[in-house]
Design goal:
Number of helices: 2
Order of helices and strands: HHEEEEEEEEE
Helix content: under 10%
Shape: globular
Distance between the termini: 53 Å
Strand content: 35-45%
Structural class: mainly beta
Number of strands: 9
Radius of gyration: 18 Å
Length: 130
Amino acid sequence: LLSKTGLDTYAMGYEPELLESRNVTLNLVNFTEIEIQAISYSIYSDGNLISSGGASNADNSPVKRWETFNIFFEHGDLGSGKNVTIEFGIEMPDGKNFTVTDGFRVPSEDGAETTLILCGSVKDGFYFEQ
């Protein structure tokens, strides 16, 4: 019926270009001496906060040294995909929170996969290496 009216329709009200999948995978390796309960993230596009969230083990167990968090982002999480950066925070099992000092520029190509190694300490601060 809608096709006979000449009206354009989109799934869930989104325009077609927003339905394209842009999957980005971040593998975050815990190379610190501490256990990590969860990772939080804030996603910025051109300096504006567009999304935030977090990740933890499915069974809520802490991530030990050498273990990896895998975080998957899709198109809707990353906005336009231009000038997108992510800032991270970590939560320890005792509830203390720390900021990771450097943000990460998100790769813009579909299917990108990046491994970031979390380094540092409570005393000296936390940072990522690639």
